[in-house]
Amino acid sequence: MSTYPFDFDPKEPFMQQASDWIADVFYERLPEAGFEVRDEQIYMAFQLERAYNEKKTILAEAGVGTGKTLVYLLYAVMYARYTRKPAIVACADESLIEQLVKEEGDIAKLARHLNLTIDARLGKSPDQYICLNKLDGARFEHEEDGERFRDLYDSLPAFVRQPDSMQAFLPYGNRKDYPELDDEQWRKIGWDVFQDCLVCSQRHRCGQTISREHFRKAADIIICSHDFYMEHVWTYEARKREGQLPLLPEHSSVVFDEGHLLETAAQNALTYKLKHAVFESIITRLLEGEVREKLAYAVEDAIAQSEKLFDLLEKGSRRVSGSNRKDVVITDALLQEANRFRSLLAEIEEELVFESGLFTLVTYHLTIVEEHIEMIQLALGLFVQPKQLISWLEEDRDGMSLVIMPKKVKEVLEERVFSRKMPIVFSSATMSVSGSFDYMAGTLGIRDYLSFSVDSPYDYQAQMKAALLPDQNDTDKTKLVLDLMRLTEGRALILFPAEEQLRQFKASIGQHPEAAGYRFLYEGSAEISSLISAFQQDEHSVLCAVTLWEGLDIPGPSLSHVIVWELPFPPNDAVFASRRADAADPFEEVDMPYMLLRLRQGIGRLIRSREDEGYISILGQALNQAEVRSRIAAFLPSGTERNTIC
Ligand code: SF4
């Protein structure tokens, strides 16, 4: 592969030459290939040139249809080649990663029209891979799905099932390869935070490990999720200390696509999850060896204390309606028990130092236990300082987990990400508040940055109609949605703020015979990119989703109607409770901005090209409040709102 698509003169500054070539791409090459020249793209290219030249962070707010992805991809690739380190493009979630590399996606377009071979590889999050340990359990334990999992196991490459010498290992086991599994089935076999890969005996044959080795060798771009990038940042030092490679290789620049969502990803990556059953199953491994009595008693005491702590947590917690979360009420008694648990763990840690000298324990078990205790100590160390954290209980089929999340991440981000001299691009259609980027920069710890805004080139007044439809007491919303869908004969994306509402809609649809004429695709019923692809190909189908408010890019008639089931106000969970508690006017500072940003993103799914046209229907109880209604009407593109579109 020739390094640059232009004749590079080493005597001239590289970025100047790269920018001249990129300008030529937008002024000449792409228009010649039938692309429309967009002033916004050229403007954005000049702005990015400065960020790459000065190795600075830039907040690039560019409306839908500006073609911002092509601009940042070109800079990222050229700079990667110049520095001989790949660029990282971090997308908001795993489905958006796939969109970037799909056949008709932007990377393929550049490759085709510029005759540019781009080495872009996917760095998927661990939970996107089969965990062989979990699969081993699931094949035999889960009656209803056992056979399916046994077939799946038989379909894995031979090197997984019959280890031998001289075998070639190829990437496998990716969530996308199993579109037929629903989320519940995937949870039984996909990696989760309670798996300890570092000491796993199957790690060299595990799809996750093999894929990581594959994407690390990308020459141009590694595409991952925000969550994965943040995981890389937080684990970087610890992995190096333990003699492991960091999750991502050294890189030349970072693009955060849908960058306004980064703060949440940073918080998620810094989150700890504790579970009594997992602790008990790990710590009892110590009792399999010939350990001294003192250690055996300490283990039993710690198990009893963990159980007591989780009992107390559960008794004192409050259920959050519409979610599987419970708010933790922190009391002195709870903190006392947490501290007692920490002391017992410290006792075990000390005993293990003695025990390891006696060689009574299998080293493998010892390492697992030591690591798990270290993680619990770190988490509980945070837990006993409640002002700095947000915590809640989460229930799943395997029991209750205590989740501990830091309240603010900006100091850590500032130190570990934004203080580096490296080009970092935030790209999104929605980042500024009343023309200023200070709010977003402040929450992320970005002190020194460049920024710009460009509007969407689309004629919304001509291309889109919008209706606000407040719920009445007797509104049958499912029927209303079915009526609305008639306008476009299906071809609709229905956006739900939470999974529970999607489930209710799904349950109610059977009572409406008129629904039988449509094909409904429900998020969670299969792998997400396969659902998106089915929605795009089956023009009259209807996609019902909870997480596709952002990023979904489906130009053409398949998506002619966006129906918002309910305004996307933030949930009443511990994260938002904490943000509200810190705000002078919680509704104005937390709820309203979150809802408006998410709604703007949701509406942005409709018009994806100059030829697109369609409807936005916004339903909801909150539309009965004049203030809410007028704020939404104010940001809808002028001339698009109608009282009704039926
Ligand atoms: S390396 Fe991790 S994901 Fe793979 S089998 Fe082992 S525990 Fe599971």
Automatic annotation (TrEMBL):
Q: Give start-end ranges for the coiled-coil region(s).
A: none
Residues of the Helicase ATP-binding domain: 27-309
| Keyword entries, A-Z | ATP-binding, Helicase, Hydrolase, Nucleotide-binding
Q: Which InterPro entries match?
A: ATP-dep_Helicase_C, DinG/Rad3-like, Helic_SF1/SF2_ATP-bd_DinG/Rad3, P-loop_NTPase
Q: According to the lineage, what is the superkingdom?
A: Bacteria
Keyword field contains Nucleotide-binding: yes
Keyword Metal-binding found: no
Give the EC class as a word.
hydrolase
Q: Which PROSITE patterns does UniProt cross-reference here? A: HELICASE_ATP_BIND_2
SMART domains on file: HELICc2
The UniProt GO MF terms for this protein read:
DNA helicase activity; hydrolase activity
Q: Which family does it belong to?
A: Belongs to the helicase family. DinG subfamily.
The name on file for this protein is ATP-dependent DNA helicase
Organism of origin: Paenibacillus xanthanilyticus
